[in-house]
Amino acid sequence: MRPTKDEYYLNIALAIAARGTCKRRNYGAVVVVKDEIISTGYSGSPRGTSNCLDLEDCPRIVQGITSGERYDLCRSVHAEQNAIISASRADMIGGTMYIAGFDMNTHFIVKSNPCYLCIRFIIQAGIEIVKFAQPGRDMVAFGVININDMRYDGNG
């Protein structure tokens, strides 16, 4: 069966997530404008720095930090942030960001909603719609203009 455009871009985001270097969860992001991929990004350490997979160590795991907390201890840059810094704002205005991710232990798809820091990056980039994967391959979409209506559950 031929995937819809949304499924197509979410599948690309999931493939990009496989490049991630986080020991907990890896995410991929794709920015699309007028049915053209403008940029991509995955969760990983800044270029030229050590990452958790290579070091076989994660400060947040070692300290037992819950998901969604203490991002300041994380070595990775979020997939959304990497996708945004890889393109000019002028190219992203009015675009859609697709986000998908998976758990490194189970390899199951995880809810891929952006964290509040990434939401601010998305707004600043001029992206208008965010579509993200959830377990069971369901997709959630929201307009950035309605971002205040989105409930944050701490799992992004």
Detail the topology: elements first, then pairings:
Layout lengths: L4 H13 L7 E9 L2 E7 L9 H4 L3 H4 L16 H7 L3 H4 L3 E8 L5 E2 L5 H10 L3 E5 L5 E5 L13
Write up this protein.
The protein is an alpha+beta fold and 156 residues long. The protein has a single domain (5-149), classed as Cytidine Deaminase, domain 2, CATH 3.40.140. 27% of the residues lie in helices and 23% in strands. It has 6 helices and 6 strands. Strands 1, 2, 3, 4, 5 and 6 form a 6-stranded mixed sheet that branches. A hairpin with a 5-residue loop joins strand 3 (96-103) and strand 4 (109-110). The longest helix is centred in the first third of the chain and has 13 residues, at 5-17. It is globular and about 45 Å long. Mean pLDDT is 83; it is low at 149-156.
List keywords for this structure.
156 residues, Cytidine Deaminase, domain 2, 23% strand, 6 strands, six-stranded mixed beta sheet
Percentage of residues in strands: 15-25%
**What oligomeric state do the depicted chains represent?**
single chain
The CATH superfamily turns out to be Cytidine Deaminase, domain 2
Radius of gyration: 15 Å
End-to-end Cα distance, whole Å, is 30 Å
Number of strands: 6
Order of helices and strands: HEEHHHHEEHEE
The CATH class assignment is Alpha Beta
| Helical residues, percent | 25-40%
Rounded mean pLDDT score: 83
Annotated CATH architecture: 3-Layer(aba) Sandwich
What can be said about the biggest beta sheet?
6 strands, mixed
Q: Given the helix and strand composition, which structural class is it?
A: alpha+beta
In the residues, how many domains can be counted?
Answer: 1
> What would the principal axes of the Cα set say about the shape?
globular
The CATH topology:
Cytidine Deaminase, domain 2
Number of H- or I-type helical stretches: 6
**Uncertain segments:** 149-156
